[in-house]
Each structure stands twice: as structure tokens, then as C-alpha cells.
Design brief:
The protein has eight helices and no strands. The chain is globular. The protein has one domain. 42% of the residues are buried. The longest helix is centred in the last third of the chain and has 27 residues. By secondary structure, the protein is mostly helical. Helix 7 packs antiparallel against helix 8. Helices cover 69% and strands 0% of the residues.
Length: 166
């Protein structure tokens, strides 16, 4: 399959599906769109972080379910499986990484780095899911699992280093 063209900035911002899937345009970055998409997740995390765990988890689950539809629909409109500019899945993955993380920029940055590591590296079973699961679920599930791997590592770091470093 040929590499899909990016939608224009106008198309991305006037089509609500593309606007959301492309992280409000962050996925149109000329390089490392996944990294730019993950950066968009940080302010969203800062809004969600003070919420109770149950509310955070409910909103995250809702976002993941909506993202499956949005990412799948955007890919379908672009006639590709997983366009590199679709970054709503990275936003979900980062928010999974940050479950139960204490306040502090150290944890935000470490969570960002760990999520990007697992999202790029895609160790098994992430790579297996990435290759075999199609549609919106396939676009989102590998990032959610990368977020789980990153969350485990981040929780271990918090346990070993202490939650109140910064």
C-alpha cells in the first residue's frame, strides 16, 4: 500500500474526525508526529491528574473507546491502515502511562520518555498486536499496551526513587 498523504491543514482542522485523530494538528508535524502527539497529551493529563482514580479511569476508558472509532474512521477516510499522523492513540497511551502517578514534572517527563520508548520499540506482544489487529482497535491497542508497559516501569521507578523527588 502506498504511503498515505497527509490531509491539508485546512482539511485536518475542518473535518472533526481528522482534527481529533491528528491531535488538533500535532500529527501533521513534518517529523516525529507521534512524539508531537504525545506532547499534546501532557496538558490533557494535567487537567485530568487531580481527579479521583475512578473518574480518571472512567474518562480514560471513554477516551479509548471513542478513539477506536475516531482513529479507524480517519484511517478509512485516508484509505490507509494507520497513518503516521493519527496520534490520538498516542494520547491514550500516554494517559494510560500516567495512571496513579504523583505530582511532579520529573514523573511527567519520565512517563513521556518511557511511553515513547515502548511505542517506538514495540516489544512483544505490542509488535504482534500492531501487525495483526486491524481497524481502529488495531491503531489504538498497541499504544494502550505500550502505555501499560511504560506505566509498570514508571511505577517501579516511583517505588524505587520515591514519589516526592520533585
Amino acid at each position: 500500500m502506498a504511503k498515505a498523504q497527509n490531509p491539508s491543514i485546512k482539511e485536518c482542522m475542518t473535518n472533526p474526525i481528522h482534527a481529533l485523530a491528528f491531535g488538533l494538528g500535532s500529527g501533521l508535524a513534518p517529523f516525529a508526529p507521534g512524539t508531537f502527539g504525545t506532547l499534546v497529551a501532557i496538558p490533557l493529563y494535567l487537567v485530568l491528574q487531580p481527579l479521583s482514580l475512578s473518574v480518571y479511569m472512567a474518562l480514560l476508558l471513554l477516551l479509548i473507546l471513542v478513539s477506536i472509532y475516531i482513529c479507524g474512521e480517519s484511517a478509512k477516510q485516508l484509505k490507509t491502515h494507520d497513518h503516521s499522523g493519527i496520534v490520538l492513540d498516542e494520547i491514550c497511551g500516554y494517559l494510560v502511562t500516567m495512571i496513579l502517578v504523583p505530582n511532579g514534572w520529573l514523573w511527567i517527563v519520565l512517563g513521556f520518555l518511557l511511553f515513547r520508548l515502548f511505542d517506538i520499540w514495540k516489544p512483544w506482544p505490542i509488535n504482534w498486536l500492531d501487525r495483526r489487529v486491524q481497524g481502529g482497535l488495531g491503531i489504538v491497542i498497541d499504544d494502550v499496551l505500550a502505555g501499560v508497559f511504560a506505566a509498570i516501569c514508571l511505577q517501579l521507578a516511583i517505588l524505587l526513587m520515591g514519589p516526592r523527588l520533585l
